[in-house]
Amino acid sequence: MIVRAFILLALCGMTVLFCRFSPPVKGGDEAGVLAELPMVAGRFVGETEAPSDKERELLPADTIIVKRAYHTPGRAVAQRDQAHASLVIAGHDSRSIHRPEVCLDGQGWTLVGSQVRTVKLLSGQELNVRDLAIAREVLLNDGRKLPVRAHYVYWYVGADVSTPSNLERQFLTFRDNVLRNVNHRWAYPSVMARVTQGLPPEISGERSRSDEETVTMLLELVRTLAPKFQKNLMPAL
Question: Considering the entire predicted model, what is its pTM?
């Protein structure tokens, strides 16, 4: 018992000394992403969307929010794809970056499944992202309830690292703060699209896509989007 107490006291003392004499944390001002989403990403063209009042209300005032609605132009409705992309960049308040499951639940979505997927970029680099399968019911004008499914793909980007795990993000924050003297200014990119299988194109405004086809489409969008704003994925000049 005495030995344990001594070890605990020694560890506490070492922690205090380490914190006292470690150099001041640097960084935190420059994000690992550009604060913009491209207008053109492969076969997709994006139109600027404004952040919602709810987003502005819930997120700290110095949070940067960039959004675009992407679609495949010049195609008949029955062959069209649509997706929404957003990029949230933290300010000084860490509440800007959080687990998206919290916000999705507040918007009425139910989490059906979650898995990490690997996106192989044209450069040969690999990017790990998290795919959330979500569902909810939409109330139609005639009083009927229509079940809707969707996929929400996201990842976190630090100064020079990225991860699909919030737990790993917290570990990287602590590790790099202590060992590398780097304070990550985290960003949070995401893309989302509905599963339109069973919905007539004249109602959905796009082609009929299964879960698998929707995921494939979103990962294609990530493949072309990410190297255009994530600095450690951008081709060297």
Answer: 0.85
